[in-house]
Amino acid sequence: MARGSRASVDVEYSPVGEGLGMRDFWLYVWLRRVSVITAHIISVGLVFLTSILSRPGTSLFSWHPVCMSLGFCLCMTEGILLFSAEGSPFCFKSRKWKVRLHWFFQALLLVFGATGFGFMVASKNVSEHSHFTSWHSLLGVTTMVATMLQATCGVFLLFPKLISAQSFPRMRLYHATCGLVAYLLSAVTVMAAMFTDWFQAMVKGVTWYIFFLLPLFPALVVMNQITSAFLPKKKITS
User: Fold this and answer.
1) What pTM was computed for the model?
2) Start-to-end C-alpha separation, the chain
3) How far apart are CA 42 and CA 40, in angstroms?
4) Contact 136/120 with Cβ under 8 angstroms?
5) What pLDDT score does 25 carry?
6) pLDDT by residue (tens digit) across 50-60?
7) What is the spatial distance between Cα 20 and Cα 77, in angstroms, rounded to a whole number?
8) Do residues 91 and 124 touch, judged by C-beta distance below 8 A?
């Protein structure tokens, strides 16, 4: 076949924080901005409400929901949304500055996650209850594993000399994919926690349904941001 007789197809990935489609359309941009701001508010609100319900310090278990909400509802959400071009308080910062802050939030996530996990195990040991017998606990362990996987991918991105230059774009995609899976798992785990006896003893009726739906909104915003940033865009060149 003659050279140049067929158009070549290059697959490119848009940078983190850049969406696809109707970004230039003012209504679309406004809706994205409102969505991101709402996700910020919900993530902070979930931590605040969880702290009120658990009353940290009253028992070993009381620290578990507080630490987990700080890690997965707040730090994980903020660590992703800071790359958003709409509604993020860090939107005017440089890419390098955002990456450093992203790592700070992710490090806090791992610390809070490990601490919350430790309090849960200690509480079960003291009360002599069996470990990992509920869907919430099983989902929680799965979420921790996925979080560690995305952090491992992130280490290779932070120290690119550990991998080849050809592997860097693929590792970046792996990191984003693991991060999305971990975030969605964390949202499902939070929702599963609302079926536990501890939560249902304190929250009932319409309030319970509001709590149940709250984690869904930040999850949708995060999913839209990550998929928009990493879905391949085909660029046709002759």
Assistant:
1) 0.84
2) 15
3) 6
4) no
5) 60
6) 999 999 999 99
7) 21
8) no
